[in-house]
Structure formats: structure tokens, C-alpha cells
Amino acid sequence: MHTAQRNEWAPDAGLLFLRVSGGLFLLWVHGLPKLLDFSAQLQLIEDPFHLGAHLTLSLAIFAEVLCPLLIVAGLLVRLACLPILSVLLVALLVVHLQWSVAEGQFGWLLLILFTTVFIAGPGRLALNVRLPGVLRYA
User: Fold this and answer.
1) pTM
2) Any transmembrane segments, and where (predicted)?
């Protein structure tokens, strides 16, 4: 492969790495623990909008399990970023507003990561490229 061809695919490889590593990290650290220990998590989850612990936890699981899986696969990537960004913003700006930047650095880094994916899109190494029309850009 010529250098020009390698460089042509470098941004897409970078986006693939960002999507897969970020999505799996969020899934492993936040999503799966909530999903696999649902009952215990019901007692721990904050409910800042008074939706009820069950609904709040279900929404968090949607954002931290299903959405990262879509992002890793490269399906509806920009749409899948929105619930993740929402959960992160609520956590950082509502639930843990008292945290310093140092205390919330993991959340801020995830916010930066998934905002980047949202802005840049999934790249050419994603299943999105196989979807018709407007879904390709979602």
C-alpha cells in the first residue's frame, strides 16, 4: 500500500479507534454494571428529574449499553451519541455540579470524546455507509 493510500484512510482508522475504544469503555465501566446489577443500582441511582428510579435507570442503561453498541458497530452513530451526551451533561451539570474539574475529569473526557464522534461522524469504516440516504449521516 502506498503512503498516499495509507494516509487517505488514517482519519477513518482514527475515528474507528475512537468509536470502538470509547464505546466499549463506556459500556464496560458504566453500562454493564448497571444492566447486570439492576436491583442494586435502583437503590443507588440519583433521580434529579423525579422520573422514578426505575425509569431513570432504564434511560441510563439505554444510553450506556445500547448506544455504545450502536457506536461501536457504526450504526446511527450521531443519533446514538445524543443520549450519551445528555446523560453526561445531566451528571456533570445537575447531579454532580459540586465536583471540581479534577473530580469530574472522567465525565468531561467522555463528553469530549462523544462530542468529537458526534461532530466528525463515524468515518468510512462503519456500517452507516451501507445505509440509504439520510440514515447514512445519522
Assistant:
1) 0.90
2) 12-31, 51-72, 79-99, 105-127
Q: Residues near 63 by Cβ (< 8 Å), separated by ≥ 6? A: 83, 84, 86, 87
Beta strand segments in 23-137, E = none
Q: Phi, psi (5° rounding) for residue 123?
A: 85, 180
pLDDT (tens digit per residue) in 45-87: 999 999 999 999 999 999 999 999 999 999 999 999 999 999 9
User: Which three cell numbers mark 61?
Assistant: 442503561
Please report, rounded to a whole number, the percentage of residues in the chain having pLDDT higher than 90.
84
Give yes or no for a contact between 74 and 122, defined as CB atoms under 8 angstroms apart.
Answer: yes
Q: Is residue 131 packed enough to be buried (19+ CB in 10 Å), middle (13-18) or exposed (0-12)?
A: middle
Distance CA 121, CA 18 (A): 11
Angstrom distance (rounded) from CA 114 to CA 124: 17
